[in-house]
Write a structure and sequence with these properties.
There is one protein chain. The chain has helices spanning 15-21, 39-52, 88-93, 96-105, 114-118, 123-133, 136-147, 160-181, 193-200; strands at residues 6-11, 28-31, 58-62, 79-83, 109-112, 152-157, 184-189, 212-215. By secondary structure, the chain is an alpha/beta fold. The chain has a five-stranded mixed β-sheet with strand order 2-1-3-4-8, with helices on both faces. A three-stranded parallel β-sheet has the order 5-6-7. 37% of the residues are buried.
């Protein structure tokens, strides 16, 4: 693995933070954030980008399992390195363990990040888009079906400064969600530790790290690769990306 070039294919929601961590010469492709809303489209787009890499490489995949959006993806001649998480939220929190702790403490939490806010991938914008595309009555129905089971809205930032910069955008969403579903709003500081370890993994292939799935050439992604002891299925994601 150490003799191969390293390539990054990641969700655009991680672009700002990966750019701060990656060496300048690292080839990287960012896929559109909205792909996570349709797992089959995500799988097709990701497979296409993997197949475009001509030279056998270590390809770091900047996604979690994401609503089973990675299932069936084939490594081809490459080695794929993937965070062993059920969705991207765990990557922003810094570990699967922290994600699981928060999930079981507050399972009905919808998470925001700077990337999702800037992409307008959040409940308020969804509602405005529905009103534009349909009518107010239909928009009310669709947004209720999608978000009514959430009880908390959580903004994750990698620093207190980032939380402060994003607060005006986050509070607009929080006001909408609070009035409509009585969601509580909170802010937490995440961690780049998983991203930092992820991009260093090709340099240390013998590391015994249960936080990542390493797919050898010729393999195909299966859900069992992401399950830990005692898990029969991934817990339902606290975002709409699965």
């Amino acid at each position: 693995m150490t003799n191969r070039p390293t390539v990054i294919i990641a969700c655009r929601v991680m672009q700002e933070h990966l750019q701060k961590l990656l060496p300048e010469a690292t080839p990287v492709t960012y896929l559109e954030i909205t792909l996570h809303n349709t797992p089959k489209k995500l799988a097709a787009a990701l497979q296409q980008e993997i197949d475009r890499v001509a030279q056998p490489s270590n390809i770091i995949i900047g996604y979690g399992l994401c609503g089973n959006g990675l299932l069936g993806i084939k490594s081809g001649p490459h080695t794929l390195i993937i965070p062993r998480t059920h969705d991207c939220v765990a990557i922003f929190l810094g570990s699967h363990q922290r994600y699981v702790q928060r999930f079981f403490a507050n399972p009905n939490t919808y998470y925001l990040t700077r990337g999702w806010l800037e992409a307008r991938d959040e409940p308020l914008q969804d509602y405005l888009d529905y009103v534009r595309d349909y009518d107010e009555e239909t928009a009310d129905y669709l947004v209720e079906m999608k978000y009514r089971h959430y009880r908390k809205l959580c903004m994750v930032g990698f620093s207190q400064q980032e939380l402060e910069e994003c607060r005006p955008m986050a509070l607009r969403v929080a006001e909408f969600c609070g009035k409509r579903w009585n969601m509580e709003f909170e802010e937490i500081v995440g961690s780049t530790s998983m991203l930092e370890t992820l991009i260093r993994l090709p340099e240390n292939p013998d590391a015994d790290n249960a936080e990542f799935v390493v797919l050898e050439p010729g393999q195909e992604i299966q859900v069992e690769m992401f399950l830990r002891e005692g898990e029969s299925a991934p817990p339902q994601a606290p975002r709409n990306d699965g």
